[in-house]
Each structure stands twice: as structure tokens, then as C-alpha cells.
From TrEMBL:
<dbReference type="InterPro" id="IPR005531">
    <property type="entry name" value="Asp23"/>
</dbReference>
<dbReference type="Pfam" id="PF03780">
    <property type="entry name" value="Asp23"/>
</dbReference>
<protein>
    <submittedName>
        <fullName>Alkaline-shock protein</fullName>
    </submittedName>
</protein>
<comment type="similarity">
    <text>Belongs to the asp23 family.</text>
</comment>
Amino acid sequence: MRLETERGAISISPDVFTNITGAAATNCYGVKGMAVRSTTDGLVHLLRRESMAKGVKVRFNDDATVSIELHIIVDNGVNLTAVSRSIMSEVRYIVERITGVKVKNVDVCVDSMVIG
């Protein structure tokens, strides 16, 4: 994404958005980690911290905003609505504060629940 300011242009890599988003989401209560669905066996796998960007999809919109889709794994027994709302709020706040780019929407997909 490229931002124009009065002092010049700023280019922000998509990796910056995925790393910030993944870190913000995994810091929320009830989130076990980011998830990815395997193409070979179709199972959902928990991602390690260094590869959690695979569970984040960032789409750059024409109106200089971003749309974010997260795939997560949550702990057993958490309120899914409350956790999802918390993630949406936290991700929107952190991304807008750090990058200065407006977040149009945050979609949270709960792919699995970990028991224990």
C-alpha cells in the first residue's frame, strides 16, 4: 500500500499488515493461535508464531482502506461472540494506530477449538 503525505510517499508491505494483525489477534483472550487449512488432508493446523501470517488475509481496497480476514483457533469454553468482537476491535485499533491506514472491516473465522 502506498500513502501520499505532504512530506513524501510511504510504502507499506503487505507483510507488515499480516504480522501486526497476527500479533494483535493472538494477544486477545481465548485465542490459542492462528490457523491454516492444509490442502493435502483438509485438516486445520495451529501455526507457530513465526508463521502466523498464513492465517491472515489482507485485501487493499480502492478507497485507501484495508479489509482483513483472520483464521483462528480458540480455547474450549470461551464465548465465541465475545472473543470475535474483542479481536475485531483490537485488530482495528492496533493496525490503524501503527500504520495510519483505515481498516474497513475485520472478518474473524473460527476454524477450530482446542480442548485442554
